[in-house]
Fold these 3 entries.
Entry 1:
Amino acid sequence: MSTGTEPRVGRASEEAADLPIVVDDAAAQRFQVHRSAMTSPAVHRAEVERIFGKSWLYVGHESEIPEPGDFVRRQVGGRPIFMVRGVKTGNVNVFHNTCTHRGALVCRQDSGNSKVFQCFYHAWTFDSEGRLKGVPDRDAYAGGVDFDDLGLKRVARAESYRGFVFACFDPAIEDLTDYLAGAKDYIDLVVDGCGGSVEMARGTNQYSFGANWKLLVENSFDGYHAESTHDTYFKYLVSIGTDLRGGVSGGAVDLGNGHAVIEYSSPWGRPVAKWEPLFGPDAHTEIDRLRADLVARHGEQRAHAMAEVNRNLLIYPNLIINDIMAVTVRTFYPPTPDAVDVTAWALAPRNEPASLRHRRLDSFLTFLGPGGFATPDDMEALESCQQGFASGGVEWNDISRGMGRTPVANDEEQMRVFWRRWQQQMGTAADLAGAR
């Protein structure tokens, strides 16, 4: 939380120095974001370059490519790339998905296994380590062509932490472990809470909706909206016997570099090791066993954090890990200022018994699936905000809740952490002339 006495703002230019987008006034306990941050094409163009072009972005999980030659293709920061496990080395390789000859996509399937990747346009062929292995009529090329230099191009930086693979298009970025800062501890909680060995369940949720991506960041760890927006879900929990009288309690934590988390205790169950009526009476024994195993491995205090404490984690700028009634990994990218494409996966313990996996996936879909209780509510709310911005008359969003106290889970400190990092990366571009 800021301790300065002067408002911290972004500036459009020396000629438009009275046009801030972010106002962070600790003395007045006021934090505001101008709505042009969510609507301006100029701001969006700057975000593509300064945020998505210069941050570590989530690519996928190593468990998605367990065998040599396994691959997945993704859009990362708006760019087509693919991740493949090398046949010879076993390394995880992340390549730009473009042929070095004339530019066509080389990997044209979402996932699979292949020793080679052949461009369908002129049949140039590359192996899983990126080397150019085949050129039809190679003798037609003059001696000045260096085929060894025409292999697939790797993304500038690619690293992983606990199986989570990230890439960055800026070769000068700090190492991933330094970038993750305090978020590493929460990734550890999630992975160790699943027994230390995890995998992505097969299949994804993919959907799009009409709102700015930063509204989804805010929404993903906004405890303030839960009771009003998701009233139907809470009524459903009561109808199946969940006792909600204990309520929700917790707080927000600034993890550094724009990462933040809300962590809180709640009445509902968690497939890690907290039973609830939704799981059925037969699940009691297995969940008790899981809890005992966590205590034996990590001690009572850490086991409690793994089994009973929920966390909504942002890894800046666009990776959300919701460790709640299921573990959801969600990433997103904005093709325009008023649209966002979302992909979500379910993270689970490797070799999880079928009955527990079924329970986990049911929880994953029931609340956070695109047809579940929460996601349609959230999309409606965010699209409503975006529509409301077009009305005019009101210039600022207020994100001041909790500035005058130690932040609790339904305050907005975690959002301010995001916006401060956003302002830092955007610099003067956060107030581009003509943004309004």
Note: The two ends are 28 Å apart (CA to CA).
Entry 2:
Amino acid sequence: MTILQVNTYDLAGGAEKIAYTLHEQYQQQHHHAFLAVGYKRSQAPNIFSIPHEMYQGRWERTWNRLAQSLSPFIWKIRGVKQMYHLCCQLRELPHSWRITLGHEDFYFPGTRHLLEIPPTKPALVHAHNLHGNYFDLRVLPWLSSQLPVILTLHDAWLLSGHCAHSFDCERWKIGCGQCPDLSIYPAIHRDATTYNWRRKQTIYTKSQLYVSTPSHWLMRKVEQSMLSQAIVSKKVIPNGIDLSLFHPADKITVRQKLGIPLDTDVCLFVAHGIHQNRWKDSQLLQTVIIKVANSRESKKNCLFIALGATEKEDYMEHYGRAKFRFVPFEKETASVTNYYQAADIYVHAARVDTFPTTILEALACGIPVVATAVGGIPEQIEQGNTGFLIPPGNSEAMAAAIQELLYNHKRCHDMGIQAAKMARERFDVKRMIADYLTWYEEILNNSSKTSLCPYGQTDELRR
């Protein structure tokens, strides 16, 4: 089977990790797998950047090349993010008035040539995140008339007038407008959320899409949104991880390898761009760890390791008896796994989250999880068995749960055993691969029996 996946990046966290894992596993099972991305970071074969530049004018090509060269350093070097956005603004100057008005940018001409990327025409297209300034959403009606198009949603951007997550706002159900926060990623300059919402609605009306989500929480949102009208078939397929890489290990050996003291309670949190990550609650984490470290019952030093900091160097901060160690983003999976295996508890404080892979990785490594009960997280944790679910923003409850595990070593150990067991039963990457491949076969068998609706390109796309 020839499979073409589409995503913003090939290497990063969350959606990128899932798409890349699927790509590798498909190749190992001898499928013709290709991954088309907006921004390529790896040197892996069969991964291609969508060729927007060759279909743009000279002005756009120049600024686009400069923006792409800056992209890998956005979270590593101070000031690069501003330079990157400046290049993007200059690139878009010929049609920047739309952006100034708050319109979402869909002008990415290489999208129309997506099916030319693989050497042979794919049997289907499996798209992941379509935001991130690289994909022309107006292509969906035409693309879905050519072959089956699967959308795996990792956030709610396709359902709204601009934001990837709406937090407590539910205006995405009725057409957006009067947006409470235009700065939520992907940010827009003015409140054109009603226009953007209706624009997406028009695109979906002319599309036929197969939609999957990793959590029932996100699927319920899809069913209440304007995307529902485009759905031919839908499926909840939980994310999976490679259990040959993420598994329990001897804590003493791993800590000696990482230089972590043996007589220290270790709490771990993993997220890309921890300080700047709006979906996570870094302030809650800091408050909680200080409470735990300075409690009267604590007999050990408490070390909080934050893996995925944007800084280039490993550094430490001290708050009373609490120590915060910030470790830069690790590309090597083996190194990331070691940090999980060295921890006593995985702590995940989020304001919103779809189905975080980091929680699955922690469970697989045999450590209990204390996390805020938001989004799809309650679908990952068995309360009191593999971890604790805490009301969002409740530092007292989170601190109490962590203390319960740190001071009751037997319960912490037993919950870790249950966590690893549940990961083996529910979150094995082999199960995820099998679920997708089985669904692909069903889709292809059904689509061969019924002709796809012959929608062409919209007038807006031809403009």
Note: The chain has two domains: 2-240+428-462, 251-426.
Entry 3:
Amino acid sequence: MAYKLIAVDMDGTLLNSNKEVSSKNKNALKVATEKGIQVVITTGRIFTSARYYAKLLGLITPIISNNGAYICEYHRNNVLYENPIRNYELKEVIKDIEEEGMYYHFYGNDTFYTKELDYTSKELYEWNKEQKPGDKINIEVLENPLNFIEEKDPDIYKLVVIDENQDKLKYIRQKLSINDNIEIVSSWSNNVEVMNKGVSKGSALKELCKIFNIKREEVIAIGDHQNDLSMIEFAGTGIAMGNAEDEIKKKAKYITDTNDNDGVAKALKELVF
């Protein structure tokens, strides 16, 4: 098969447990691009975070961020697709979460909003200290997110609830799932992620293939978690990481090594090189 596009997830896939890209993975993506294959970063992260890694890898690539709600060619700031959460729905989701007293944050393409610096927002706050001005992620701590949304009417692509209590996470997911106008997935064991209805990595990848005139049979998608399932099912060749959830492994055509053992590089060596 002559592949034309490789969609690769970041956390748990391209990045190892230290949030680093190994030299073998970096070189494999470089070789793929030299062969004329379009490499696409596909992540649940905010766009500016994904852009940092694209620049680090030296990739000229469209970035699918926010679980598929925002696609942009970062090198020329060209937005190819966006699908924000309707602000009415966002406010209803926030009300439900605040009733349970749970941590949450939400973001657009370049700004991260939270009521408190904890979990991911705290990690990004510390990460910013080591970054150049152009690579930092804007973080805004809001006293009243509902008022902010009402007054500013921002474009928000994703909201994340985080809690270590699995029972609380299960309950809030069930509570939010009553709303038919939102999409709910998870990218880690301790979170629940909310996007606009119809948003997914798979739907974004389908949109990108239309733009580039690429057939799904010519696509490889590599991931490890529930939010990667849609793109693994869409791609002609779906690959699960060795550290992937069982559900992802069952749906994938191939299973590669773990993210700490250069699983991306090994998969591409086997199937592409």
Note: The chain has ten helices and 14 strands.
